[in-house]
Design goal:
Blueprint: H1 7-21, H2 23-35, H3 42-56, H4 65-100
Helix pairs in contact: 1-4, 3-4
Amino acid sequence: MMKFTSVKAARNLRHTTQLFQNRKTLFQMLREVFHGRYRMSLWTNVAVVLGLIYIISPFDFDWIPVVGWVDDGFVFYLLIKRLQNETQRFNRHKAMERRMK
């Protein structure tokens, strides 16, 4: 029997691999944020902080074995999607910076 993956699952995997491929851009963006040369959107800052707190926190559904893993995985997926959007915004920002020079 062949196992088929859904189109949506393939797209989700593609988003994750794109962020992994753009990890240099992500680290450059985080470095620029740390040095104050780039500001991430307020929504991204809030999502990252609350998402990491939720994943680390033992007070969610972690006491139910499978459900605890699924909800943490879903929050992690949302963080990846948000960071991917932010790296695209960062790329546009850098392109505009180069154009102004």
